[in-house]
Amino acid sequence: MYGRFFLFIFSRHQVFFFFFFFFFKKMSFPDPVLEAVNVVQQHFDIIEKEVIEIDKDILMLDECVRKYGDVFLPPLSHLQSLRQSKKATLTEIANRLRVY
User: Fold this and answer.
1) Would the pLDDT of 27 be above 70?
2) Residue 58 in contact with residue 82, Cβ under 8 Å?
């Protein structure tokens, strides 16, 4: 009953405007800068997790070097340089995120 009464009083365009105004007005459309900052934050989190995994691998390779000798030194040095580059990337990202 109320639905039919509502349709008789208001036209279709007025009903559309009513729903648009009250339901979609509160929805905020994403800001491109905020989206970019969110993406950078997600990349930061991923690289941070990679550094944690690299640290675990370095500890494992240290143990392998003690047990089995110098065979594991090249992969260990590679992981250490990779860790340094990832840490430098994290520092750069953190400095850029502070701006926003």
Assistant:
1) no
2) no
